[in-house]
Amino acid sequence: MFFNRAKLFISTAVIILISSPLSAQNRISDHNNIGWYAYNGTFKWDSKFSIHTEYQWRRNDYVTTWQQSLLRLGINYQANPNLQLRVGYAWAETFPYGEIPINGMGKDFTEHRIYEMATVTDKIGKIDLSHRFMLEQRWVGRYSDPNLTSEDQFPFMNRARYMIRLQMPLKGNSIGDRTPYAAVYDEIMIGFGKNVGENIFDQNRIGILLGYKFNDMVRVEGGYLNQTVQLGREIEGKNVFQKNNGFIVSANFNFDFSKKKVD
User: Fold this and answer.
1) CATH at 91
2) What is the pTM of this model?
């Protein structure tokens, strides 16, 4: 069922990307400079199960003001060497950045998510390839009155996400200890079901990164990030797109408590 939905989602995404330039004249663009700073930590307790922890400090004007604060937690199950499954919870606080804020009243808003994820990995020569499929059940805060200081409504929405990522070592044939590497990824997000706004396209993200793996426990990477966000409402009869460009820096930690000590 999950992969059937994924196939439908990818087909829809391709149609949207092909047709989107045709409607460019009916758009309003809002350009922002962003900086994302991320922590990812995995705590493995046996050969199959681990805990995922993540926090992203997302800033506008590179670092000056808030764009979004995102916390994500999950439980991983390693079904086989090439398939990892995850279920979890995410909390996000989105702020009124840019000339055209996401919230129509110009307020920050809270979002709660439950998500299910599958990551499929493969290796082609020196290139590590991964496909990440994610379904999100979202409760997004809204204000029924501009005089309110906190959200009083949390309508339910669905979103599907697909990310493809390729990475390769800059020396040697694989990414081992003390190895620099390059990576590129693209992720598209599609809303579906009730309460979807202007249309089903939500976001697209492109990243071009350089990384360094110190060892199995520590890896860092950073580089260019392009984020395109479509608002869920029109302004003067036109679709509104945020064009956010900047950089992303992440620190990734892997703690393995499953290894038994040798006497």
Assistant:
1) 2.40.160
2) 0.88
